[in-house]
Design a protein that fits this description.
Number of strands: 6
Radius of gyration: 20 Å
Shape: globular
Distance between the termini: 24 Å
Bound molecules: iron/sulfur cluster
Number of domains: 1
Structural class: alpha+beta
Largest sheet: 2 strands, antiparallel
């Protein structure tokens, strides 16, 4: 049975609407600008480094780990200005999508072999419930914090509290003002996509050209990869 936040009533909806009016009026723009400004030189360094790592002849595990480290550096800048705190875990009750290669790295680090998963088994809506937490959530905290996936590492609610992360009926939380980490999630997608190179003929010149094709990675929910958590 779906368990909803106790504040799922008219008052909660009114609070959420009032918060969004404040956000739309610019409440957190200054905070996000501040973090982005401080992150700019760090991101420039990461761009150069991650580009190099993407093309380096090293194991995928090492590439993903380097990406985690880069995101943690942004996290250190965002943390003092973000609502995210230890013990705050609404986001551990929503879908947590992980490419299978990242699940394999997590599995090696925590000593648990991930299950074979073919895509997201269940609809996102059905996963977002207070009675369906991530199996690694223990006592309100992440039990694999150092090995948590990018989906969790890159999520920073830039609001002053977790109001907008609270789940509402039908599971999905309202819109949350997350820090934009699109560049980093794109790098993970590039790292885990299958790349195939084929020689084709240019239709105009008839000369051979190299065509690169990317097949998206197999992505599943963390609950399906690790149904028993860490045991
Ligand atoms: S994303 Fe939301 S629920 Fe998760 S730690 Fe941050 S404020 Fe809390
Ligand atoms: S891996 Fe950790 S942070 Fe991520 S959803 Fe699970 S318990 Fe939460």
């Amino acid at each position: 049975m779906t368990t909803l936040t106790p504040s799922l009533d008219g008052q909660h909806r009114a609070n959420v609407a009032a918060r969004w009016r404040e956000i739309d009026a610019g409440k957190i723009i200054r905070v996000i600008d501040l973090v982005n400004e401080r992150a700019l030189p760090v991101k420039a360094r990461h761009q150069e480094r991650l580009n190099r790592i993407l093309n380096a002849d090293i194991k995928l595990d090492a590439k993903i780990y380097a990406l985690w480290e880069a995101v943690d550096e942004i996290g250190a800048l965002a943390a003092p200005h973000s609502a995210c705190r230890r013990g705050c875990s609404h986001c551990c009750h929503v879908p947590v999508l992980v490419p299978e290669q990242e699940a394999a790295l997590i599995g090696k680090r925590i000593g648990v072999k991930p299950a074979k998963v073919k895509g997201v088994k269940r609809g996102d809506e059905s996963l977002a419930r207070y009675d369906n937490p991530c199996p690694f959530l223990k006592g309100g905290a992440c039990s694999i914090y150092a090995s948590r996936p990018l989906a969790c590492r890159q999520q920073f609610n830039m609001d002053s509290d977790a109001l907008l992360c609270e789940l509402v009926e039908d599971g999905a939380p309202p819109k949350v003002p997350y820090l934009n980490m699109f560049d980093y999630t794109t790098v993970l997608a590039m790292m885990t996509a299958r790349r195939e190179s084929r020689i084709e003929r240019d239709p105009l010149t008839g000369l051979p050209v190299v065509e690169e094709r990317y097949t998206p990675p197999n992505v599943g929910d963390i609950r399906d990869f690790f149904p028993n958590g860490k045991r």
